[in-house]
Fold this sequence. Notes:
The protein is an alpha+beta fold. The protein has helices at residues 6-9, 27-36, 41-56, 63-75, 81-95, 97-111, 117-126, 160-164, 290-295, 317-325, 338-352, 362-365; strands spanning 2-3, 136-144, 174-182, 187-190, 199-201, 211-217, 219-227, 243-247, 255-259, 261-271, 275-278, 283-289, 299-304, 312-315, 371-376.
Amino acid sequence: xxxxxxxDWGSPHLPECPAVSVDGQSLVAIRDTMxxxxxDERTEQALTAILAGWRGDRASVDPIGAIRDVLDDIRAxxxxxGRLAAMNTFVRTLGEAEALATFLDMMRDSAERPGTADEELxxxxxxxxxxxxxxxxxxxxxxFSGFEPTxxxxxxxxxxxxxxxxxxxxxxxxxxxHIWQPNPNAKGFSSGARIEEGVIVEPPHSHPFDFAxxxxxxxxxxxxxxxxxATPGCEGRYDGVRLEHVDGVWPEHxxxxxxxLSTLEKSVELTAGDSYYLPCDVIHDVEFDAKVATATPAVSxxxxxxxxxxxxxxxxxxxxxxxxANPALKAQGGALTPEAxxxxxxxxxxxxxxxxxxxxxxxxxxxxxxxxxxxSA
Length: 377
């Protein structure tokens, strides 16, 4: 690992690329803009037709491939107003609770059709290995886009490919479902931050990609930060706290330095029906009430675009030290059994439809690891 100053390592930024209207806006403004944004009609009509067709006659459509085609149409758009609207429409149309439940049913049904293209596409989800290793029981990859770059794909900055790896390639877009429920044995890392008892908080971090997301059910809160304590902000949990600034959420880290953060927005609430978009230069965290998350977790649909910059993470020294001591941490994850994968999607589908008032994935995921990408006080 290379030891550098925060100034040398830099801070989250946009690459050389076209701008979108929400670049530089507050999360509150982005939430309000995206939740009320007029839909991209082509994307909305295509997804609505796929859902209706499958509900009417499951044999009449190959739904997973058709949804992937819609995704590939969006990634062919250059970064700008058209892509922004289409990404938002995608997560708002497919992330509505009944629609997302139907999509999960599509996935389950397609996995039972051996030899079909849709069955092959469900293997992205079935073979995913990070269902629980973050500390959340419900991290769920659903689908990848096509793997080849398009003319609109933003070229990643130097070093991104080496950091992110090639599986999948940086040009790929990913669709995931987040079930914000902690593993029963998940233990956060002491950070010195002012974190209330019973609150789960991820370390502040940026992403290597832009993403759009919608809250399908439940409530989540996010705070927005800026690197360097001289940046004007509001009172926040990390005031006066030194954090370890590293590259990415997983070891091994190439860079590690110490810095402070300023809080720009604190605990912005996102509720069912809200959508938002975060560019890759934004530092944020997510927080949840632990008691609520254990029984009635929030569920969100998450669509990320191509990876273009290195991600930045601001973690407690105790977490960074644990990463240094466990360079193969990510390998502790494992794919669910076919039965558990089916059970997980079925349980979430019923929860989204209101057929069950609570959700517990403990027995289904059956993960006994203690590591969690969480901060404690």
